[in-house]
Amino acid sequence: MFVEERQQRIAERARTEGRVDAAALAASFEVTTETIRRDLAADLEAADLKVVRA
Question: What 3-state class would DSSP assign to 49?
Fold first, then answer.
């Protein structure tokens, strides 16, 4: 899967579900949590998303 496609799917999931979990996304896309965090950072710039750390 290409980076752009993964980022788009993450943004769609965030909008649909209202929130996402980096560890769950990493497992789902079979990448590291660091990769997901980079993708989320890119999505933050492109979409109306915000980070909430728990």
Answer: coil
- Domain range for 35 is 3-46
Backbone φ and ψ of 21, nearest 5° = -115, 125
pTM for this predicted structure: 0.80
pLDDT tens digits along 11-47: 899 889 988 999 999 999 999 999 999 998 887 777 6
Dig out the tokens for 10 from the structure: 């993450």
Predicted local confidence at residue 51, as pLDDT: 72
Question: CA-CA distance, 54 to 35, in Å (whole number)?
Answer: 19
Domain tally, the chain: 1
Is 39 a member of any domain? yes
Residue 29 lies in a domain: yes
